[in-house]
Amino acid sequence: MTTFVLVHGAWHGPWAWGRLVPLLRAAGAHTLTPDLGSTPDHGLHDHVDTLVAALDACPEKDDLVLVGHSYAGLVVRQAADARPQAVDHIVLVDGWAGPHGASMFSLAPESFADAIRAAARTRGDDRQIPPPPPAAFGIVNGANAACLAARLLPQSLRSFTEGTRLTGAVDRIPGTAVYCRPQTYPFDRFGESLGYRTHALDGPHDVMLTDPEPLARILLNTCLLQEQEAQSLE
Predict the structure, then answer these.
(1) Percent share of the chain, pLDDT over 90
(2) Angle at the Cα of 160 (from 158 to 163), degrees rounded to 5?
(3) At residue 206, does pLDDT exceed 80?
(4) Residues 104-114: pLDDT tens digits?
(5) Are 129 and 160 in contact (CB under 8 A)?
(6) What is the pLDDT of residue 44?
(7) How high is the pLDDT of residue 229?
(8) Distance (Å, whole) CA 33 – CA 69
(9) Nearest Cα to Cα of residue 150 among 12, 7, 32, 14
(10) Rounded distance, CA 75 to CA 161, Å?
C-alpha cells in the first residue's frame, strides 16, 4: 500500500491538501497530512523533528512517498535523510531544495530575503513573518483568495534562516520535482540539480488548491513508474 505523506509549505497547514486527499484515497492510496505548526520560535529543524515523528508512526510495510510543497521541500529532504530506509520516493511540488546547508534565504533572491526580514521586523516582532496576500501564491480568484486569506498563518523567521543538515543519505532516494507554470522561482532547476525527474504543471504556486486532479495524476503515475522500475531490476 502506498502512503502519501503530504507536507504543507510556509504559512499553510494540513488544510492545504484538502482537495487532493480525496483523489488519492479514491485511487486506493493512504494519506497523511502532518501539521508542522506555526510556533514563533520553531525553526526548520523543529519542523523536521515533527515530520520524522510522523514517519516513525507509519506502518513499516507501506511504501512511503514524501511530498513537500514550497518551503517543505527543505523539510522533507532532511526528514528523508534522517530516515532513508523508510522513504521510497520524494516529490517536490514547487519545492525549495538544495544541498547540505541550504536554507530558504540561501536559495531565494536577496530581494526576497530582504522583504521577508522587513516584514518580520515591522509586523512580526522579529520572530514571525506575517502571511503575504493570496496573490503571492498565485491565487487571485475571489472565492479561493478569500478562503486562503482567512487560513494563512504567520511563519517563524527561524524556519527561513536555518540551513538543512544532510548526510547524503537522501541523495540515494529517487525523487520527482513538479514545477508550476508560469514559474515564480526556478523550481525546475532545484529538482534538476538533485537529479530528480521534473514535471511541468500549468497552474499557480498553490496548485493543489486550484488543480488537484492533474497533480493527483502526477503523484499516482510517479508511484506506478517507480513500481515498474523496481520490477525491472528484480
Answers:
(1) 88
(2) 90
(3) yes
(4) 999 999 999 99
(5) yes
(6) 98
(7) 63
(8) 12
(9) 12
(10) 13
C-alpha 23: how far from chain center:
18
Q: pTM of this prediction?
A: 0.96
Total residue count of the chain as it appears in this document: 234
- Cell 506555526 locates to 38
pLDDT-derived band at 233, boundaries 50, 70, 90: low
CB atoms within 10 A of CB 143: 8
DSSP 56-109: HTS-TTSEEEEEEETTHHHHHHHHHHH-TTTEEEEEEES----STT--HHHHS-
User: Could you report the per-residue pLDDT of 115-174, keeping only the tens digit for each?
Assistant: 999 999 998 889 999 999 999 999 998 888 999 999 999 999 999 999 999 999 999 999
Nearest to 95 by CA among 226, 173, 15, 199: 199
Interatomic CA distance for residues 52 and 110, integer angstroms: 31
- Does the 2-233 domain belong in CATH 2.60.34.10? no
CA–CA distance, 151 with 100 (Å, rounded to integer):
32
From the CB of residue 156, how many other CB atoms can be counted at a distance below 10 Å? 25
Query: For residue 187, which of 200, 175, 171 has the smallest C-alpha distance?
Result: 200
How far is Cα 184 from Cα 197, in angstroms, rounded to an integer?
19
Torsions phi, psi for 81 (to 5 deg): -65, -35
